[in-house]
Amino acid sequence: LKTPLKQAATSQLVLTERQPDCQPLTTPPKPKETPPADPWTPTSNLKMLISAASPEIRSREQRRQLSDSSSEVLQTKHCLQEHLLGDEYEKSQPSRKEKSLGLLCHKFLARYPDYPSPSQKSYICLDEVTEELHVERRRIYDIVNVLESLHMVSRLARNRYVWHGRHNLPQTLQALKKVGEENKYIQQIQMIKKREYEHEFDADGERNEEMASSFGSSEQSEMSFVELPGVEFRAASVNGRKYKSLRVMSQKFVMLFLVSTPQIVSLEVAAKILIGEDQLEDLDKSKFKTKIRRLYDIANVLSSLKLIKKVHVTEERGRKPAFKWTGPEVLPNTQDTKLEATSTTCSPPTSESIPSKEQCSKALFPSKGKQNFTRHSSLIKLVKTIENDRRKIQSAPTSPVKISASMYLFLIFLLETSFSLSQKKTKSCIKYLGLPSSHKTCRCVAEEMQMKCALSSPEAVPKPEPSQQPGLSQPLGVCPASHSSVSPVILPHPPSGVSYAIYLHPSQAHTVTTYSPGFMLQPLPCANVTGIKSNNSKVLNKITTEEGDTQRGTEEPTKSLAAEERPDTKSETSSQRCLKRSQALPENNLIKRRKSDEESLDTSSTFFPSGYLIPLTHCTHGNKAECSSKEKAGVCSLQHTAYSSPITGVIPMPASELKTVNIPAFHITPLNIMLSPNSIAAAPVLSNSCLNSSSTSSAPNPSSSALNFMLQHIGLIPAGVQVPANPVLQHVPVSSQSESISHSSGSTNVQEGKVSKNILQLDHGGLSGKYSAVPSAPKEPQEPQAVTENFFRTPGGPNTEPSLSANSDGTQRISQGTLYIPQRKLEVSED
DNA sequence: ATCTCCCGCCATATG
DNA sequence: CATATGGCGGGAGAT
Questions:
Q1: Are the beta carbons of A94 and A7 closer than 8 angstroms?
Q2: Which residues form the E2F/DP family winged-helix DNA-binding domain (predicted)?
Q3: In chain A, what is the greatest distance between 2 CA atoms, to the nearest angstrom?
Q4: Straight-line distance from CA A298 to C1' C8, in Å?
Q5: What is the rounded end-to-end Cα distance, in angstroms, of chain A?
Q6: Window 544-563 of chain A: CB closer than 7 A to strand C
């Protein structure tokens, strides 16, 4: 039976925790925007409290993002009430939920900003954490390990970790996606599914044949090492743990999401694949169970990070637990993007000192590991070479403008997407940008972009890829620019056969680019664009999104039926929206085709034998501190010249901070921008300018359109303002749902009108997450549904309604056959 | 009964 | 050797 004592203790903990919890949250030591509660409303504190206290909270993390959905508010209130009333009593249920990893993780995350300023690093002391959160150490390790796998933290020494926040996330995800693709996870998944349903009896272990082949091949060689004690990335001299299984598992798990098209992964499949990788053989039941347990642990943390969300897939076999990716869309793996970003975060292995590239490499490749050795030396060489080249290039005159433009764009993008900026900041930025002055800036940016494009790759600019959608490509003209800015250098490693990619700083990067255009040139941008249109999983997201919470049952009906959801509207800030959008970004898988070509070339990160991916980004420069600062300074200075006033004015942060922030993002910016279109918002803009122009084949002003699009997307500019994309957009009442819906269908068919609508909706809507598609639909003639094509097959055609429907129980789900899944139909439902 | 997944033993790694 | 990490699986709460 239960141990009364225990319970009591727990309850106590809970109580005590609350108070402390709140405080810290509100006033985090490091003032960052992080705090979960978005807008700092008077009630925010309460919310936090409640959330902390309430048992159900855990799942609702997502709501946070959604911020305002009415349901959410209601819930919160509800919770509030309850808790308030019960206040002291709450001991009532120390229940298991209150001790859940997810909740714990939530608390943990609340202590640190999503995007810590580079200048001030936050360190994590496990002892403190365990004490403050009142948890056993073991649990913290679970959390930290997963965070490590995402490079959100890194270990410095015993008891000591550094908090990086989400700065590295984009790179990490990109790297993971890439590896996942290399690993042919998609194939593996399909194989498993196939086998599963072909042979009912699959349970036992003989699955080798096919599996083996798939597994064994290619990357497997590298992957196989994974579980081995291989070396691990050791941040400084410290640590070098051998068993990184949880970390590795976490990465692989994430990879599965990133590569699979409906970004939904069932635990069963994940477990099988993960097991299969290490040991092709024994499919043991107990092993399977253990794997599942671990996956749940990981999933809880990832859920707290809002990267995934729990759902259920119903196949012929029955309903199976699964998770859906709700994190940021990963940029198409273009080599360019990869770069840098984290210059600031550079793995700082050792507390401060870090010096030359050599050291860097050393840090990355600990001498201990034999396997590493080989690579080590070669890597260093490569680094050197690159550096030299870089230097040369740098000396050459470069146009600062470009950089600044990129930066600027990036900044904007950052504001939107990156959740990191505090809302305040974002708001101010937006405000500022919203002014006419912003236009000017934009223009500049656009010009810049164009220039870049031209410079970077002639081919890209003029005629993107014929194969790809021509129409789209144009607008993308901007994209090329991005390439130029970011260019990863790839180092082929003959012996191992593995290639390492080194990321350069922006300044460097572009230099490099010049120097070796070949790599950069990839038409990726175009591809991306196309991809964007084509894929999109938003729909699904939306559907699921809503509920996130436990009590969804109650609310759901309402939601589904009525679009009303956001009665309160009150506080959704643009930033929030942005966040949502960003999260909602559909995955674009389109790019895959090119991959094959590129694969060899592009490597965003090095793959270690251990299986744990470590981004090399940091290494780029010799001295981490120096480097970053230098580079930053350089970049910044350039920027400042051009845009200093706007930026500074906009952002409240100190210049130094800005610099850092910008830089990292910098490379990515272009890509992101491009991608953003994927997200719903983008589509409209594109459709207007891009599509039209595309037909013509020459876009009058691609860059400007792109810019507008960006701005709109971000919310800086009101939907109609710059580019009167669609009148419709403005009034679209459709709630957040629209977002999910949005998207386009196949790469080929893009419907402008529809798209535009979606965009508008997004802006206004919100994101409540509820699915009100049906009701809302009537308003707009063109329907958003068309958008859903990817996921749903709309028999009726574009105009038909989506196949989504509410179940009797109020749960929404996709009707059978609607879900677009390559092999079979699935039903996805939230839990 | 099944799904989740907390708890904490105990092997290892680290210092 | 004392601790810090973290693999692992029993078994119990949640559904």
A1: yes
A2: 96-165, 241-327
A3: 76
A4: 15
A5: 29
A6: 550
Does the CB of A99 fall within 7 Å of any strand C atom? Answer: no
Q: Are A636 and A626 in contact (CB under 8 A)?
A: no
Compute φ and ψ for A230, nearest 5 degrees.
Answer: -50, -175
Q: Which nucleotides of C are covered by protein (CB under 7 A)?
A: 4-15
Distance (Å) from CA A417 to C1' C15? 37
Paired tokens of A770: 């509820």
Q: Find and give the residue nearest to B3, measured CA to C1'.
A: A321
Distance, Å, A541 CA → C14 C1': 25
Residue whose C-alpha is closest to residue A113's, from A44, A167, A49: A167
Question: CB neighbours (10 Å) of residue A131?
Answer: 11
Q: In DSSP terms, which residues pair with A313 in a beta bridge?
A: A320, A828
**Whole-number Å distance between alpha carbons of A163 and A112:** 8
Q: Which protein residues have Cβ within 7 A of any strand B atom?
A: A 96, 99-102, 136, 138-139, 157-158, 229, 238-243, 267, 289, 292-293, 296-297, 299-300, 310, 312, 320-321, 831
Q: Which two tokens stand for residue A30?
A: 């490091």
Alpha carbon distance A209, A215 (integer Å): 10
Residue A229: the pLDDT is 27
Protein residue at shortest CA distance from C1' of B11: A243
What are the tokens at A204? 């036992």
**Alpha-carbon distance A244 to A227, whole Å?**
7
In chain A, where are the structural domains located? 101-198+242-325
Is residue A402 a contact partner of residue A448, using CB atoms and an 8 Å limit? yes
The pLDDT value given to residue A296:
95
Can you give the length of chain A in residues?
A: 831
3-state secondary structure of A125: strand
In the predicted structure, residue A391 carries a pLDDT above the cut 70: no
> CA A546, C1' B1: Å apart?
29
Mean pLDDT of A649-668: 27
Protein A614 CA to nucleic acid B13 C1', in Å? 21
| Two structure tokens written together for A267 | 């635990």
Q: Which of A387, A392, A389, A432 is nearest to A408 (CA)?
A: A432
Question: A679 by DSSP, 3-state: which?
Answer: coil
The beta strand positions in A448-556, using DSSP E, are 489-491, 500-502
Residues pairing with A323 in the sheet: A265, A310
Residue at the smallest CA–C1' distance to nucleotide B15 = A158
Rounded Cα–Cα distance for residues A161 and A798 (Å): 51
- Please tell me the distance from the alpha carbon of residue A237 to that of residue A563, in angstroms, as a whole number: 56
In this structure, of A231-235, A678-682, A704-708, the range with the lowest mean pLDDT score is A678-682
Q: Whole-angstrom Cα distance, residue A453 to residue A397?
A: 17
| A264: helix, strand or coil | strand
**3-class DSSP state of A313:** strand
Nearest DNA or RNA nucleotide to A296 (CA to C1'): B5
pLDDT score for A333: 54
Q: Say what the pLDDT of residue A165 is.
A: 86
